[in-house]
Amino acid sequence: MKSQLVIQNLYVETVDHKKILNGVSLKISKGKIHALMGPNGSGKSTLAASLMGHPGYKIVSGKIILNGADITKLSPDKKAKAGLFLGFQYPIEVNGVNFSSFLRMAVNEKQGKRVSPIAFKNQLIEKAKTLSFNYDITQRSLNENFSGGEKKKAEILQLAILKPDFAILDEPDSGLDVDALKYIAQALNSLDFPIGLLLITHYQRILHFIKPDFVHIMVGGKIVKSGTSDLAREIEETGYSKFLKNI
Asked: What share of the chain is helix, strand, coil (3-state, %, to 5)?
């Protein structure tokens, strides 16, 4: 179906044949927010990495359908060009690569045309203000000497500029103080384009600021329960113990 990210019965293992995902199925429509919660080791980050094509994981069976096209075997760059975005749990520093130039080249590649450096710089500065970045974001290297909160905000800034159809955000709230969390939530809530979000988190904290349409619980490499935002509140009160009993 068009305007959907469809995950069909996905089985994934590591390159040394350790099974991680055991039949994950999910449909995410544009304009909808899905929160994926679960204890450590449940497979949440593996799902994020596998969807984007991380070489450390092998899709044994199942499909990834983006806007009606099978992208399961595409390389990460082609998946990104097709409209998929991954916000990393631990963004890395890339010394010597200017943040603004890097992002402008990505936009040029995605749009298939050259964007004026001056126009792009002005756009970047304006978007950066919503995340409380200073002007010098255009002069800094990619994530170099960024604090943990700045790295996470830089991921959201990239999302806002690239305008993907669907985004997977792997624990965007980890390591953030309340102010940084609020800036990220504000930026996501005020995006000026329709997007489908898969928001991966351990806790409900970020969901106080970003209300999901659906909440899914992952345990043992599979989704064991789905519901509304009430499910996240239930997890905050009772934890994951009752789901772990069935593994």
From this structure: 35, 30, 35
The helix (H) or strand (E) run that includes residue 80 is helix 76-82
Q: From CA 216, how far away is CA 204, in angstroms rounded?
A: 12
**Secondary structure element (H or E) that encloses residue 107, with its range:** helix 99-111
Q: What is the pLDDT of residues 62-92, one digit of tens each?
A: 999 999 999 999 999 999 999 999 999 888 8
Closest C-alpha to 27, from 52, 1, 6: 6
Q: 155 in helix, strand or coil?
A: helix
Q: What is the pTM of this model?
A: 0.92
Break the chain into its structural domains and give their ranges: 4-227+238-242
65 three-class SS: strand
Q: How far apart are CA 82 and CA 74, in angstroms?
A: 10
122 has a pLDDT exceeding 80: yes
Q: What is the pLDDT of residue 218?
A: 96
Single-letter amino acid, residue 141: S
Say how far apart CA 15 and CA 220 lie, in whole Å: 18
CATH dotted code for 4-227+238-242: 3.40.50.300
Per the CB < 8 A criterion, the answer to whether 123 and 204 are in contact is: no
Q: Which residues contact 79 (CB under 8 A, 6 or more apart)?
A: 51, 52, 53, 66, 71
* 142, β-bridge pairs: 94
Dihedral (C-alpha) 7, 32, 92, 146: value to the nearest 10 degrees? -170
